[in-house]
Amino acid sequence: MPALHISTDKAALDVAMIHQFLSERSTWAIGIPLVTVQRAIDNSLCFGAYLDGRQVGFARVTTDRATFAYLADVFVLEAQRGKGVSKEMMTAVMAHPELQGLRRFMLATSDAHSLYAGYGFTPPARPASLMERYFPDIYAN
User: Fold this and answer.
1) Residue 40's CATH number
2) Given this model, what pLDDT does residue 2 score?
3) What is the per-residue pLDDT across 105-130, written as a single tens digit (0 to 9) for each?
4) Which terminus of the chain is more solvent-facing, meaning fewer CB atoms within 10 Å of its CB: N or C?
């Protein structure tokens, strides 16, 4: 595999590709509008994974950079899966200097538990203390 490059440079992100993946191929954001994807990028710490200058993966972290972070929208394009791209992105996320010393770092996943467990994520210690407002079909309208 050619050299993989992970960057937090938002100017390098292929927003059209990110939107296309999230809105058409993800399991969690089908139908998400481009304006919503752009606003999410603008207000998050974003990680792009690049092979030969072409973006092949994405992850974003919503955080106050002091006490809390939420990892979201993690994906690797289908053609690059199984080649370690997600692990390289997660290594970069977990090593980022602005994400150190957080009291809580959360995420939600339906199918990548073993990936995230390798970086110290576990089921909530106190699930009864967590609450949410969840609208899974919000972009369907």
Assistant:
1) 3.40.630.30
2) 73
3) 999 999 999 999 999 999 999 999 99
4) C
Beta-strand ranges (E) seen in 25-132 are 45-51, 54-63, 68-76, 104-107
Calculate the CA 98 to chain-centre distance. 16
How far is 62 from 50, CA to CA, in rounded Å?
A: 21
**82: alpha, beta or left, given left = phi > 0 and alpha = psi -120 to 50?**
left
DSSP assignment letter at 52: T
Torsional sign, CA 134, 98, 14, 17: negative
- The label of the residue with tokens 């992970």 reads 6
Report yes or no on 135 lying in a domain.
no
Q: What is the mean pLDDT of the chain?
A: 96
pLDDT of residue 69: 98
Q: CA torsion, points 124, 70, 113, 23, in degrees to nearest 10?
A: 140
Would you say the pTM of this structure is higher than 0.90?
yes
Burial of 70 (0-12, 13-18, 19+ CB in 10 A): middle
Q: Could you tell me the residue range of the domain that residue 17 belongs to? A: 4-129
Please list the ranges in the chain whose pLDDT falls under 50.
none
